[in-house]
Structures are given as structure tokens and as C-alpha cells.
Write a structure and sequence with these properties.
Strands 1, 2, 5, 6 and 7 form a 5-stranded parallel beta sheet that branches. By secondary structure, the protein is an alpha/beta fold. It has 10 helices and 7 strands.
Length: 223
């Protein structure tokens, strides 16, 4: 059995880990537990979470990395990273989005001194891109046939869900919110479940690479 601690940027990412990623990885003998980036602690000891500010991400990673019996990964968005995040500025101006996210993951690992059990990951360009993996499922979910063609056109134009870009009005979640169907990502986790991990994997190469790395943790010779 391999334990995996997942530092998640927000509530939707945490739900994804609990309801989709953890059950999938369990079949590979990898047992995933999500933790939200901690923003502040209340007087009664409860933690409030969510966000991507570098000091908060760094401080939230420390106790996870201190667990010598567990692997640690991140589920953070490439889009919207503040300038103080390691590698954020050069990553945004990299030759391609894939080169940018690779640089970002390298810089994150370097910033915390390359712990051996750490697998940095940023969704390209953000978590909501995965909803574009199956435009037909989005249309069915909202009972709105036109949505399928609209989303499919975006995917074709951009070259894939993970290539939907950084623009303030054109990043994945902005596009979803303009559909006029009241999209809320915490509520629509059921839609992502309908789409399913195999479909996301087929449509999103960067996600697929990360997932394969996590699955391999269940095989001792692959760690």
C-alpha cells in the first residue's frame, strides 16, 4: 500500500480527489487523501483553505512533506498564479504552454529543495479545462444541445482542452461561465464524474502523464 497526500487548491479540486482520483488510484494500491491549501486557522482550531499564494502553498506543503511514509503531490492551477510563485513569470512567457507548465513544476520542486517523494503538478491551464474533454457530456448534463458544438469548437480552435489559454476572458472557467447555464464547479463535480477519468486522460496529455506517475507508485519497482 502506498499513501499519497494531495495538496489541492480549492474545494472543487478536493472533491475531485475524494470522488474520482482516490477511487481510481485505490485500484492501483495507491491511497490518496486531499488537503486544502491552508489560508488561516480559526480560534477554535479549524482551518480555512483554498488559494494559490506561494507562502500559503509552501507552508501547507511542509507538514505533508514531513510525513516520511507518504508521497506528496499538488493539484494547483497554472492559470492565475501570482507573480510571487516560483517560476510563474517565466512560465507564462514560455514558448509553449507545455514548456511553461514543465518549467513551473521544476521550479516548485526546486523551491522546496527537491524532496524525493514529491510530484509537483499544475493543471494546464486550470482544473476546469477537464470539462472540455467531452463536450457531448456537457450538452447532455445541461440538456442544452448547442453547448456541445460550442465547446467542441473551442477545443478544435485551441488544439485541445489543455491548450485553452490564459486570457482573462478566455481561460477555461471564464468560457464555462459564459455558457448561460449557471455553471458552478463545486456543484458540477457530478458532470466531471460523468465524463470520467479515462476520457480526461485521453484528451489531456499533461493530466495523463501525472496520472500514470501516480498509478506507478503502487508498483514498488516503479517508485
Amino acid at each position: 500500500m502506498t499513501r499519497l497526500l494531495v495538496l489541492a487548491e480549492g474545494d472543487s479540486e478536493e472533491l475531485f480527489v475524494k470522488r474520482m482520483l482516490a477511487p481510481h488510484l485505490a485500484s492501483h494500491s495507491v491511497y490518496a487523501t486531499p488537503t486544502l491549501v491552508e489560508t488561516r486557522r480559526l480560534a477554535d482550531g479549524r482551518k480555512l483553505g483554498g488559494g494559490n499564494r506561494w507562502p500559503r502553498v509552501r507552508d501547507s506543503l511542509k507538514p505533508l512533506l514531513a510525513d516520511s511514509d507518504a508521497w506528496v503531490t499538488t493539484l494547483l492551477d497554472f492559470y492565475g498564479l501570482p507573480d510571487d510563485f516560483p517560476g510563474a513569470i517565466p512560465a507564462r512567457t514560455a514558448r509553449t504552454p507545455d514548456a511553461g507548465v514543465a518549467l513551473l513544476e521544476q521550479q516548485l520542486a526546486a523551491a522546496i529543495e527537491h524532496p524525493p517523494r514529491f510530484i509537483p503538478f499544475f493543471a494546464l491551464h486550470e482544473f476546469e479545462a477537464w470539462y472540455f474533454s467531452a463536450p457531448e457530456k456537457v450538452g447532455e448534463h445541461f440538456d442544452h444541445a448547442e453547448l456541445e458544438s460550442r465547446l467542441a469548437q473551442v477545443v478544435r480552435t485551441c488544439g485541445g482542452p489543455e491548450q485553452i489559454n490564459h486570457g482573462a476572458d478566455t481561460h477555461p472557467s471564464a468560457r464555462l461561465h459564459t455558457l448561460g447555464v449557471g455553471f458552478r464547479k463545486t456543484r458540477e463535480i457530478s458532470l466531471l464524474e460523468k465524463i470520467g477519468i479515462p476520457t480526461i486522460r485521453n484528451a489531456c496529455p499533461h493530466f495523463a502523464q501525472w496520472l500514470s506517475r501516480l498509478e506507478a507508485l503502487g508498483t514498488p519497482s516503479s517508485r
